[in-house]
């Protein structure tokens, strides 16, 4: 197999909670990719001023310049790792709202991965939400995903209680970078066929 050029990967951290497990794990994923030689960037939604999406995904939002920051960061990346929390059986609102501010021109043909921290037992509700949303944006979601049950106690001093968690995060991150690099090489940046 011919090696591909490093893929640029954007991490979007959607949790609003200080000391967030999902944010900590997203940072780990990006550090792993940076150490592997991939250009990475983090967008922490706690640091952006984004409006509630009004359904017009092309609205320029002149009073909210961070909308353009978000859109251009996604457009410039080969791959995107979404990371957030599951609340009441679905993806947390801040992360979903940020995704709703995107349109095909920003995300089509990109490769996505997902990390979700849950307050209770492990399930795939929020991860499935993110998969469906990525598909509607005409993007690809890697097969792997990371759900972290009992998210508030999953880390002890920033270190996973489950010793396999970092391996799962690293595998997800590398999967996004590999697929994004391969897809970029295969499609040559040409938008996917609409169907």
TrEMBL record:
NADPH-dependent FMN reductase-like domain segment(s): 8-151
SUPFAM superfamilies on file: Flavoproteins
Protein name: FMN reductase
Taxonomic classification: Bacteria, Bacillati, Actinomycetota, Actinomycetes, Kitasatosporales
Superkingdom: Bacteria
Origin species: Streptomyces canarius
